[in-house]
Protein 1
Amino acid sequence: MPLEILLVLVVGGITGIAILSHSLGLSKRRAFQSADDAQAAWQREYPSSSVTDVILSQSGYAALIQTRRSIGVVWTMGDDTCARILRSPKIARVKTGLRLRLADYAAPVIKLELSTEETALWAAKLEGQS
Amino acid sequence: MTISYPDVVSLAVPFFIALILIELAWITITKRGGRYETRDAVTSLVMGAGNVASGIVLGFIAWGFFMVLWDITPFDLGHSWWIIALCFVLDDLRYYWVHRFGHKVRWVWASHVNHHSSQHYNLTTALRQTWTYTFTFMMVVRAPLILMGFHPAMVLFCGGLNLIYQFWIHTEAINKLPRWFEAVMNTPSHHRAHHGRNPRYLDCNYAGVLIIWDKMFGSFVPEQDHDKPDYGLVHNIGTFNPLRVAFHEWVGIWRDASKPGLTLKDRLMYCVAPPGWSHDNSRDMADGIKAKHLKRHPEDQGTPGFEHLS
């Protein structure tokens, strides 16, 4: 197949599928429905950890997880979830909440959408325990 | 005589797009058979495009290696249809072992991991392919085929057919196929299990086309109705950035192997030991994850995927 035709097919195909998927409402970000929902997403990643506390953000997009040994965050990305135990993240206060920078090439940044009160609470917990 | 085989993977691109649209329509209309998410799907498709591009840019390395072998070998099996059929079967066996190495040797896993990095399982996932296969040096596993007298172009043609076959099995829209087919062929059900991050499904069902290889070499685990595959990685990545998807495990290897205070053997092991190996046993490999699961769920002892653990 000539390269230019392949290129048109690939670029057109990706663009078309992206537009169609977005139009069908498939870009909506998942929100945790409850603290239990967030904890289940955490346990999916760290099944052996003993969770002692879960603080779900008002947006439902993230939860702060306290375990017996560590502190971590579980958050939604697209329709999926991800979780990380936090080890000395760089914490920055931004307009929408907090931005955590991790020394993790596969999860370099966690953007946490938090209210002002939540931002203060989460920052204190993260700075105090991570 | 000049031999020419079609580039079947490029020719299949319109069919890939059409089948993705059909699957998306099916899921949207019936509200079952899988799920799509825009950024995940686009990431998978960009990975697929990058795979084709890396083949164009780096393909000459493998091709040059194969032609050197072809010049060396005294054998030429010709191009009859049954030789092509035999080549297809033997190349499928080759695929099985390369795929198994891809899960058991971290250097090869670094290339293959991106294919498992989606938490979705749909036809776009099939196209989430590596950009770095050349650097795994797994082209050497094809050397015996060429030295036996299968022409390199035929071997690559059969490899292309193998990849095309594997496209349609990346779907939840098809449940189980007739028993005779499930017994011999790789199917959506068998491959869903392969993509599962559940402890039961770690390191199983490496087949490309014929599932018989897994049954022969003891890596077959049937999909269980009571334990639906949970797709993705043991530790999922937190990004849709294709560059990070493509290179994250290579970066991980570099960071681990360059840690201060390690022995040379430790550094080497971080490159070639199974994923999850660590010099201080702070991480778990597949069997460790399975053993911990059995501690939490002793009722799973002896069931598929856990038979070899006491």
Note: Chain B touches chain A at residues 7, 10-11, 13-14, 16-17, 20-21, 24, 28, 35-42, 45-46, 48-49, 52, 56, 119-120, 124, 230, 232, 235-240, 244, 247-248, 251-252, 255, 292-293, 296 (CB under 8 Å).
Protein 2
Amino acid sequence: MIAFLRNTWRGLTSMRTALVLLFLLALAAMPGALLPQRSLNAAKVAEYIAAHGWWGRLLDRLQFYDVYSSVWFSAVYVLLFVSLVGCLVPRTFEYVKSLRAKPVITPRNLSRLPHHTRSTVEHGVDEVLTEARTRLRGWRIAEHDEGGGARSISAERGYLRETGNLVFHFAMLGLVVALALGKMYNYEGQVIVLANGKEFCNSGTLSYDSFRPGLRVDGTDLTPFCVKVNGFSARYLPNGQAESFVADVEYQSGPDLESGTWRPYRLAVNDPLRTAGDRVYLLGHGYAPTFTVTFPDGQRRTSTIQWQPVDQVTLLSAGANKLDRPGVTDPAESRQTQLAITGLLAPTAVFRGTLLDSGFPDLLNPAVAVDVLRGDLGLNSGRSQSIFEVDRSMVDRGRLSRVARANLKPGQEIRLDDGTTVRFDRVEQWVSLQVSHDPTQVWVLAFALLLIAGLGTSLVVKRRRLWVRATPAASADDQGRTVVEVGGLARTDRAGYGEQFDRLAAELVRRKES
Amino acid sequence: MPVNEALSTYSDWTYGAAVAIYVLAMVFHFVEQAMQRTTAPAEAEVLVGAGGPELDGRHRDVAVPPRSRPGRAERFGRMAVSATVLGALVHLASLVLRGLAAERVPWGNMYEFGSVLCLGAVATWLVLLRRFPVRHLGGFVLAPIALLMFLGGTVLYTAAAPVQPALQSYWLVIHVFTVATSSGALLVPGVASLLYLIKVNPDRFARLAPRLPGAETLDRVAYRITIMAFPAYTLAIIFGAIWAEAAWGRFWGWDPKETCAFVAWVVYAAYLHSRATAGWRGSRAAAINTLGFAVMVFNLFFINLVISGLHSYAGLG
Ligand code: HEM
């Protein structure tokens, strides 16, 4: 049993397993680039499944649309993580030991080494060694007395390589841990805010249109701050391509909340507002028409609601303003008098016959093409409904019916059969904001920088060994001369060591000959 | 931000000229190779007559020892290198002109990205050429570059224009530049590794294999450049994450482009590991490196053109 565990552990932490796991990781990550993913676009996934029948459903069952939270992807990276730990622990011990280790003893036969020179110089052994020591500054050196007057130096450099390598792998470990913690404690929420002075406060998940909490976030203690959107402006090139988006906002957080101080900020793409440990992003924008309905009894209702762009280039938008008749308290009567104004909005109207289209994304010449529906909107039915549409089933069931249809420009109105008028007043802008919270992302960044530092070091530094042996010349007429042998070995990436060795070896000898 | 039409046109011309010069250089390289084989006997006489040293080894990767009158093949080789340098200068001019025309850095869409990538590859190749005797690789390195540039200039061509708001950031300058140049640099090891696989299979590639530099050289070249380009690529991904944090609200979101970059990165990490793993050096390492570059190319073309994600280069925009 123990043997089995040990073998498994050895197998798991071997270099070859790491290699195979790296491959598996690459392979497992790939489907996420090729198939639609729920985390990015759930609608696309549904579409894909519908279009691919049993095959689409099978992929769904195998978690191919949630690759990065799938069992198999997690399995691979957890194994890799374990393998990494298992590989780093012994290497760290060895590394610590090697910090104090001396360069290995000079081999008996230096001529066996990949690099080798041998020459005779006019100096004594001691001078040769002294000279060698100064030449080998920066190398770790050990001297050996080899008997018979011969002495040698073993030298090694490039220990930093292992340091860099360990730093790199540890940084990767840290990065994975920071990522995992981030997944626990992050949250991300999106909300649409009218850019006419409306406010948004990060007070709870209900303030958002959509909210995605981390595994350990329940939305009860979001850091409080508020944002007020005072205006939005977009600039476009003549071809309709956007040139800049800027939202003019004010915000308050921390003590400002108590004192009621608002601080201005120019919120733009690439320029999020960072406050209270959260970030606020400008994600998108669109238009919100304002309608005023005047009922026969003289009561008025004004409604401004965001409509949704249906064409991302021209910003032709669709939506529905829904309202109750004021003063109606009887539910049954209410269900007959609710109104919806629904249809299309064009920021720059172009009419094809009577069909409204948009010719440009900017608000140059707005118009709407709307149906006015009256009856039961189904708001009290308990079913949730989209703010951008009326509930079509109410129309189908005859509970909601069209009472007018018209193309309107700002200021124009239509009169309904009962004398109610619906006026199209103007168009407001809305912005969609994203609030993101990720307490560990600075850690991720720190580890990433550490990672790159370690990587750079370990790939630039090369480990080299060099030995110098000085032996008194043997024959009688060589009295006072010394045989100098130099041997060299590149422990990593041999490329380039040849020339470097030759230069060093030549220097070691040349000086002494002069 | 108006676009200067004249400068933009000059930029297009110089781009075309650079492609033509690269193609010429590539042809010179291949002529050199062809002549060295087909004219070997004739040239041998010349060389002997000129008092040249032993002939064998001449067609190795070591350049022919300098002599007063280089052989004809040798002259083609040198012309090829000169042409490549000229091509790189013209190429650089085309990028500078485009930058001036659009009043921004010239890497704001896929066409420009490809151009910078190729210049990165050529620059890497020229630096390599100074340090290693690998001129015989020239044609093989220039061929994919010329092809990429041709495709870039025809299929992906985009008129000079300002970039959309999401790209208006100094991170565009930093991130896209590092991605383009490091990817370009990785092209060279990709080619060297592919040739390595050919070289060590002389049975299957009887005609080509003997003309390539030694397997050892190919392997070393691939490794040396990869260890320079890999950290750069890593840095480029980190820059991308920093930018994504500012632009999209999260530093990593498994956008298809990000995913593919991650996969390529892991493959290159596997390459570096394989060089330190018994039984995986040599052919397997070379295959992994080739695969790494294949993923890069896939990321550039397939992901951009077929699967568009958040990365706004997509759709040739
Ligand atoms: C989590 C995934 C891993 C990645 C992305 C990764 C990446 C890398 C990279 C890029 C290098 C080359 C740079 C350098 O030398 O610092 C490297 C080297 C190395 N890695 Fe990893 N590694 C991973 C896991 C592992 C594991 C699990 C082991 C242990 C079996 C390991 C052992 C090594 C060793 C020994 C080297 C040095 C190779 C040499 O001397 O050239 N790595 N790794």
Note: Chain A touches chain B through 49 residues (CB under 8 Å).
